[in-house]
Design brief:
alpha+beta, five-stranded antiparallel sheet, three-stranded mixed sheet, 14 strands, 41% helix, elongated
Length: 638
C-alpha cells in the first residue's frame, strides 16, 4: 500500500505477468515464405537459358567461326622496281589456312605439348591449368605461366583485342566455350595454326614455314616444328633470324615437352635439335618512294593471302644515282653553304616517277620533302606567268618594261640585276626579272595566271596577291615538277603515278597547242643556255627554270632533257637561310650530276638539238590592197 492507500503493482515479468501463474501460450510467430521456391528456380533457369540463347545467337552473328581463316584486310606488299628488283615490303604476311589432318603428326604435337597439354581433354577452359598457373605464379611472385588454352588463344587472336583486362578475359572465356561448342578439336587447332603470330610480320603456320624454312608446313621436320611452336610465346625475342641462340634454347624446351607427352622419344629429340634457317631475305619496310607509293597500291588491291608483288615505276638504277648525287653535293658544297637537306624527283613525260629522294637520310628522317613539304617555288612559278602571257597573245620577242613599279605600297626588286628599260619576254624569263613578272601580272590579271597553273596540274591553294607571280604560294616539289612535265610531254596536266598496272587515271590530259609549247620551250631553253640555269647545261638540249626565295631559304631547279624531267629542292627544315644558295647553284648542280650519270648509263634518251621553230606566217592582207599586192608579186616577183 502507498501513502494513498491504493494497491501497488508488482512487476513479475517484463509484461507485468507473474511467470509462476498459469497463462495462455503466446501466439506463434508467422514463418517467412521461402525465397527459392521451385517456381522461382525454374523462372531463373528459364531467364538464364534465354540469355544464353541470345548470347549464342549474337556470337553466331557477330563472330563468324571462319574469321581466323580469312586473309588479313591489308595484304603484304612487296614493291618491285620497273627493272625487276624488290626494294620494300609493307604490311604483314598471312598465307592460306592449314589443315591439321594434312600436316605431319609431330607438327600439331609440338604446339599442343608446349602450349596446351590438356587440349584434347578440356572444354575450352582448363580449370586445372589455371589453378596450376596460379600456384606457380604465387610461388615465383611473378607471372611465369599462363593458363590460357589454345581455344582461348584463338578466341583472343581472331575475335578480341590484346588488352589485358578482366573484361577482355571474361569475353575470351565466353568465346572459347562457344568455339568448343561449334567446332571440333581438329578445326580449332587448324584455325589456331592458321592465324597465330610467328614474328617478323608473319601470321599463320604456312607463311611462317615459308618465311623461316622456305618450305610448306606439310614438309616441316620435328626440329623445325618445335622451333616454330616455341616462337609463339615471344615472337620477337625468340625470332631465329635475329636471336638464334634464344630460339634454339626455346626449341629444346619444346622438344623436352614433346618427350614428356610421349610425342617423340629422347633420341628423336636429340636428333631434331639441329635445323637450318632459310629465312626470306629481309627488305626495308620503308623508303621515300615506298611510303608515297604504298597508299596507291592498297587502293588498287583487295585482301589476299601471302605476299603480293607489285611492279612500280621506280627504276632502281636511277634511284641509286639520285641518292648518290644528293648525298655527295650536300656533304660537299652544301655543308659549306649551310644547306642541310635536299629533295629530288624524276619523272618520265607520262608521269611515271622513276626516282625519288625525300631527304638526306631516310633512316634519320622519314619526312618526304619531295611530296610532303610545301615550300615556295620562287621564280620557278614564273612558268605560269609567261604561259598566261603567251595565251594572251604575247610572243617570246614581245617587249615588257622593267621600269620600277609599285603595287599596293609594295615595290618588287630584281635579284642581282639592275632594272630599267625594255626586255623581250625571252630575256626577262631567262634572267628571272621580278619586275617584269609583276608587270605582266598587272597587265594580264592574276586570275589568268592561277588558271594557267591549274591547267598544268597545280592543286595547292594560290594566293592572288601582288606577290603571286614571284612564287610566294607554297606547293610540293612533285607538284611543280609534274607541271613542268606538261611542257616536256606536250600534254597537260601530267599526273604522277607509281604503279605500272592497276592504277586509275584521272581525266585524260589535254594536248598543248603546238605553238604554245614551242614558245615555252624557247623560254625554258634560253634560261639554260644563257640565263640563270647555265650550270645545268649539257651536250644536248636542256629546258628548265630556277627559283630562289627570300634570304635564300629555298632554292629550286626544275629541268628536262631527253625523256626525263627532274626537280631538285635544297634548303633547311627549320626554314633558316642558306649562304648564297640560288636555284642556279646547288640545285642545278645536283640536277646536272644526276642527269649526266643517267645519260652515261643509257637510262635517259639522247636527243639532237631540235630545228629552229618555223616562223609564224604573215597575216594575209584583205580587200583591194591585198589583191593589188598579190598581183604585183605575181607579175614582178615581189
Amino acid at each position: 500500500m502507498d501513502d494513498a492507500g491504493g494497491p501497488q503493482p508488482y512487476a513479475y515479468g517484463y509484461d507485468g505477468v507473474d511467470p509462476h501463474l498459469p497463462h495462455d501460450e503466446p501466439p506463434a510467430r508467422p514463418r517467412r515464405p521461402r525465397f527459392w521456391t521451385l517456381r522461382r528456380i525454374l523462372g531463373v533457369l528459364t531467364i538464364l537459358a534465354v540469355l544464353f540463347g541470345l548470347l549464342v545467337a549474337w556470337l553466331s552473328w557477330s563472330l563468324p567461326v571462319s574469321r581466323a581463316l580469312e586473309p588479313l584486310p591489308t595484304p603484304a606488299l612487296v614493291l618491285v622496281s620497273a627493272d625487276g628488283h624488290p626494294f620494300a615490303r609493307r604490311g604483314a604476311v598471312k598465307d592460306r589456312p592449314v589443315d591439321v589432318a594434312a600436316l605431319p603428326p609431330h607438327v600439331a604435337q609440338a604446339f599442343v605439348a608446349i602450349e596446351d597439354r590438356r587440349f584434347y581433354r578440356h572444354f575450352g577452359v582448363d580449370v586445372l591449368g589455371v589453378g596450376r598457373a596460379l600456384v606457380t605464379n604465387i610461388k615465383e611472385r611473378r607471372i611465369v605461366e599462363g593458363g590460357s588454352t589454345l581455344t582461348q588463344q584463338l578466341a583472343k587472336t581472331a575475335f578480341l583485342s590484346s588488352e589485358r583486362t578482366f573484361r577482355r578475359k571474361a569475353q575470351e572465356v565466353v568465346v572459347a566455350l562457344w568455339l568448343e561448342a561449334r567446332l571440333t578439336k581438329a578445326e580449332i587447332l587448324s584455325r589456331y595454326l592458321s592465324s597465330v603470330y610467328f614474328g617478323d610480320g608473319v601470321f599463320g603456320l604456312r607463311a611462317a614455314a615459308q618465311h623461316y624454312f622456305a618450305k610448306p608446313p606439310e614438309q616441316l621436320t620435328v626440329g623445325e616444328a618445335a622451333m616454330l611452336a616455341g616462337l609463339v610465346k615471344a615472337p620477337s625475342a625468340l625470332n631465329p633470324v635475329d636471336h638464334p641462340q634464344a630460339a634454339a634454347k626455346r626449341q629444346r624446351v619444346v622438344l623436352g615437352a614433346m618427350v614428356e607427352t610421349k610425342a617423340i622419344t629422347q633420341v628423336q629429340a636429340q636428333r631434331a635439335r639441329r635445323v637450318r634457317i632459310r629465312a626470306t631475305e629481309p627488305l626495308p619496310v620503308g623508303g621515300y618512294f615506298a611510303d608515297w607509293a604504298a597508299p596507291q597500291v592498297k587502293q588498287a588491291l583487295d585482301a589476299q593471302y601471302g605476299r603480293i608483288e607489285v611492279r612500280t615505276t621506280l627504276d632502281s638504277r636511277l634511284q641509286r644515282r639520285a641518292e648518290r648525287a644528293v648525298r655527295s653535293w650536300l656533304d660537299g658544297p652544301g655543308k659549306r653553304q649551310g644547306a642541310t637537306q635536299a629533295a629530288l624527283v624524276a619523272l618520265r613525260p607520262d608521269g611515271a616517277v622513276v626516282a625519288m629522294v625525300g631527304g638526306r637520310d631516310y633512316a634519320v628522317s622519314q619526312f618526304n620533302r619531295a611530296v610532303q613539304a610545301k615550300r615556295q617555288p620562287g621564280s620557278a612559278f614564273k612558268l605560269f606567268v609567261y604561259l598566261a602571257a603567251l595565251r594572251d597573245g604575247a610572243r617570246p620577242d614581245s617587249l615588257v618594261s622593267e621600269a620600277p613599279i609599285t603595287v599596293g605600297g609594295w615595290t618588287p626588286r630584281n635579284y642581282e640585276r639592275t632594272s630599267g628599260g625594255d626586255l623581250t619576254l625571252r630575256e626577262a624569263f631567262s634572267e628571272s626579272s621580278n619586275i617584269a613578272a609583276v608587270r605582266l601580272a598587272q597587265t594580264l590579271g592574276r586570275d589568268k595566271i592561277v588558271e594557267a597553273a591549274q591547267d598544268f596540274g597545280v592543286t595547292s591553294p594560290l594566293v592572288k596577291d601582288a606577290t603571286l607571280p614571284l612564287g610566294t604560294s607554297e606547293m610540293t616539289l612533285l607538284e611543280l615538277t609534274s607541271a613542268y612535265a606538261a611542257v616536256a610531254a606536250g600534254d597537260a596536266p601530267v599526273r604522277p603515278y607509281a604503279l605500272l598496272e592497276g592504277q586509275d587515271r584521272l581525266s585524260a590530259p589535254r594536248a598543248l597547242p603546238p605553238q604554245e609549247r614551242v614558245e615555252l620551250l624557247d623560254l625554258l631553253g634560253a634560261t639554260v643556255e644563257g640565263g640563270t640555269a647555265r650550270a645545268a647545261r649539257l651536250d644536248q638540249p636542256v629546258f628548265g627554270k630556277t627559283g630562289t626565295t627570300q634570304e635564300h631559304r629555298d632554292a629550286v631547279f626544275v629541268g628536262f632533257t631527253g625523256d626525263i624531267i627532274v626537280g631538285v629542292w635544297v634548303g633547311n627544315d627549320d626554314h633558316s637561310p642558306m649562304r648564297g644558295v640560288t636555284g642556279g647553284g646547288l640545285p642545278a648542280q645536283i640536277w646536272r650530276s644526276f642527269t649526266v650519270s643517267a645519260l652515261d648509263a643509257g637510262l635517259v634518251e639522247r636527243v639532237r638539238p631540235p630545228p629552229p621553230p618555223s616562223p609564224m606566217p604573215e597575216p594575209e592582207e584583205r580587200g583591194i590592197g591585198g589583191f593589188l599586192h598579190r598581183a604585183w608579186e605575181s607579175l614582178f616577183g615581189g
